Write the structure tokens for this entry.
Amino acid sequence: MTDPVSDSFDVRVLAALLDGEYAALRTRVKQLLIENADLITDSTEWPKEVYRERVRDVVLEAAKTGLTGSGFPVEYGGLDDFGGNVAAFETMALGDLSVLVKFGVQFGLFGGAIHQLGTKRHHDAYLADIASARLLGAFAMTETGHGSNVQALGTTARYDSATQEFVINTPDEASRKEYIGNAACHGEAAAVFAQLIVDGENHGVHALFVPLRRKGKTLPGVRIEDCGPKLGLNGVDNGRIWFDHVRVPRENLLNRYADVSPEGAYSSSIENPDRRFFTMLGTLVQGRVCVGGGGIQATKVALTIATRYADARRQFGVPGKPEVLLLDYGQHQRRLLPLIARTYALHFGQERLARDFKEIFSDPDASERRRRALESRAAATKALGTWHATNAIQECREACGGAGYLAINRFAALKADTDVFTTFEGDNTILLQLVGKGRLTDLRDEFGSLDGVAVARFVGRQAIETLAEKTIARAVIERVRDAARGHDEAEPGGDLLDHDYQLAMLRTREERTTSSVARRLKGGMDAGGDPAEVFSRCQHHLLAAAAAHGERIVFEAFLTKVQAMPEGPERDVMSQVASLHALSEIERDRAWWLERGRLSTERAKSITRAVDMLCRDLRRVAVPLVDAFGVPDELLPELLP
Amino acid sequence: MTDPVSDSFDVRVLAALLDGEYAALRTRVKQLLIENADLITDSTEWPKEVYRERVRDVVLEAAKTGLTGSGFPVEYGGLDDFGGNVAAFETMALGDLSVLVKFGVQFGLFGGAIHQLGTKRHHDAYLADIASARLLGAFAMTETGHGSNVQALGTTARYDSATQEFVINTPDEASRKEYIGNAACHGEAAAVFAQLIVDGENHGVHALFVPLRRKGKTLPGVRIEDCGPKLGLNGVDNGRIWFDHVRVPRENLLNRYADVSPEGAYSSSIENPDRRFFTMLGTLVQGRVCVGGGGIQATKVALTIATRYADARRQFGVPGKPEVLLLDYGQHQRRLLPLIARTYALHFGQERLARDFKEIFSDPDASERRRRALESRAAATKALGTWHATNAIQECREACGGAGYLAINRFAALKADTDVFTTFEGDNTILLQLVGKGRLTDLRDEFGSLDGVAVARFVGRQAIETLAEKTIARAVIERVRDAARGHDEAEPGGDLLDHDYQLAMLRTREERTTSSVARRLKGGMDAGGDPAEVFSRCQHHLLAAAAAHGERIVFEAFLTKVQAMPEGPERDVMSQVASLHALSEIERDRAWWLERGRLSTERAKSITRAVDMLCRDLRRVAVPLVDAFGVPDELLPELLP
């Protein structure tokens, strides 16, 4: 079915391919991690206070070596290079993840908010200090009562024209700021998200620069409480914040998109409040881009450990002979190799996302359409990448048996620390919902809010036909019509290992699931259903459509990369890895194609056989494949005594 | 399709059904847990030493109140009631899981080994002290180099007839005892598993009583090292043990199945060394029975928290109205309700297992066949129950968002502590392999060892026809023949909610996967394949067959229970829960039936619709369903401020 994989491929070629354009920066970050490898080996035994101080110290050290400010403008110590930001962050994920998250809070979230939502006065005042970590800060968005639904935050910033100040207030317990990194100990200021109220009118959520501490002492009106021990990331000082009528100058409003005049006149370059809100939120997409990448990198660490272990650990076998290597068992190959393949796929999906992010954020004239597409790609990649991290790290832990349970072997921290990646920077379910809705209409402005009821209403109100005026929606409709006419029902042809076949299969699922949700929503509304109920019933399918979209764009990015490689053994092996990834995904969900007559039962079984075969073939290069991930030996445990 | 669930069912009826015959004992254990609830709320902040001492104290307290010795003979302070042992252990799993594991090590593993492998002299000397926790001990089986393959342990016990002593020795690093609970601090003795060598001849692995400490001081020749921080269960003092020619009296051999005379003559009531080894191991099945039950109970805690949270937490909705409860979202119902249903199923599967265990261990004349069947059921139930715990607790954590990440809300410990349940007391993959092989031949004696090569050889050597002489194997063959003749190919008829239909579906998969593996193995061997290679290629399918068997026996146990209930709203709701469980499992793996023509594409889609509908219907009783799990409020966090 395929040529055997050549053993002679050069790991360095793959490593260079994975490192991409920021290879030098990645090497510098790895050096920092190696110098601070004690965080990996010892931090579980440190009291929380010691751990937090060490984590802060590494962040300060990173700032000193200039690894932290790539994305900031040159005049504030940065490089005006958003891609470098993402690459540095991702590489940090090979080490202690509390450092990663503290780093992300400081330079990405806090710094990013000042940079993206503020204007020159804020940049001049703060960015250089943020890039150098002289000013540590927090990103105070989430509240106890509102995590996903940010538009409904309870904190208020009421303008007092008499003193030309905003009064920041926490009206109730549900509105306290929650899980805020850098808040419990080190943050001296925060970007605080609050309902902006001017002259009694609520203009929706805006961000303000609010000082929290001076010389380590909490400022009057600010109350901060430690969130207490967490499942992981205990080197990060998460806290809760209450504001009791805290006053900040009018100028502290981060006023890139909206401002309040001294006299109390509200103005904004974006009329529609929903559009304004989502535009502001959209500028913060970097967090999502980074977290997904971090999850993928952490997965590489776990897979490197588990694969090397499986290639050294022996158990059972023929009496009188050496026991059999774990990796020579078919089931063990089945457990690890598809995860390795998927990690490659997600790596290249993430690389594509980071490139888009860099291009669009470097281009002040980037269209709103491109920005929306970026946000959708970021949401899908983040959801797939972080769920993969949770699943793959768990599988790796189990594949190392008891050894996997000892903290020294890293799975303890990898599992615990990445666990929240599926939740923060956007709960994965909510993110996929966002992707799904974007797919349905690509016109988020028309029903900007994230809630499903609005989508159901929207789709119900407009006949499907009127949607057809819109580019993407039209394509959806055409597919619905084709399907109704019985077109496009046949299975794509081609050899199973033909990437065009694999992509066509993923694309078919993507298109059909999306049009099917549109029909369901419309059908439910036409039948007079309650919009909330209609949405609830379709939600599972909407999420499946979004995931199908994510799978397609990730695989496409992988293929683009493989196809650009020069011919040779490295491309051959990457092509096999791509096939394993795609066929594993098709195998997992093969019922979907079977049910729709897009896959014959015989071909479905042959996909299972192809996955078996690819796992066997790639077993011989499993270790080189994880070696190419480039996790420094200094950051890896010695699993065998 | 079905009547709506009545809201009026009595939670207490379901709670009583779940508690079963040991309700009073469970209540006593819960009282102990409530009194020690500080372990749940505070232990993450304790230094390891403090945590370990508190855990030991609770174990001592449990011993004082008589909760620990149910399974021991009455003359040593027990109740001669193996069922009580399991019930007490399971209920302990609602609290801190370090206490659970320490409890299990002391009374189940250490005590169980002395009880089951020792004879009257050992019982007289130790059992009363073990039941009362005056003598704390360890179970020293696993070694660094051998976890699953216990037959290949490296530790030796060489008989010295000159002094009538055994000399216990650790020949190399791979043979040090590893992950041994109670070893690092508290164990004063251990049941040590070692290769018994008499006069130069190795008689295989046997167990001996070996003192480790006196008054807290390690004895000469014994070296113990702390395993260091673990992913979870840090209240348990796991350690490594090396023996340097440690001498113990001849009488310390736990000699129920084999003995060595003063002169050095080895004798055993079981001639075949493999059979002897597996018989000895079989007496220790209690550990597996307990761990599976513990995993299921811990899952109940997680589901109770997540379901109550979802019924109180609101997010998004129609402007001007209260936001929507998480549990009113279709996706959230999809996430939680099938897990609740599966937990019910596994609970009753576990109850059936515990009953078999009690009956067989209370009957000295229980046949070897029944004992083997018990071991197979224990292996399958443990694997399914502990994997379910890992999956379900993870889903519950994510379903609680950021709140799920705070240690105070219990998911941190639930995740970390249960994580190793899939590994210890038998790695789940190895256990399913054991089940699969048992299914293939039911004649383990003929190729006793656990390794797959022997199985492949065995199946290859004997023509499939000769297997047909054996009861179970014959049934397999008949099915192969039927399949070849095209019989039995049709999908079972009946309404989707008909339990007979659901069971028939699971049974079809069980039977077909088993016969298919037999054919693959035979085909591979007939073609002259290398046995190791043949086995490796079939392993994935063997494990699928084993899991299919496990699913059937669990569901059957659930149905038996439901069908024995008196008519009424409680039975109606249990019947729906059973349907949700079965149809979710069929939906998950529906490709299997589709590929074999056992399910039409239309019916497959209707199964998905039925799962949707059951989730919606059962949403109204989701909270009562978890309330019936009976987790005391004192052990649950307050998730909403």
Confidence is low (pLDDT under 50) at residues 443-450, 460-490 of chain A. The longest strand of chain A covers residues 201-211.
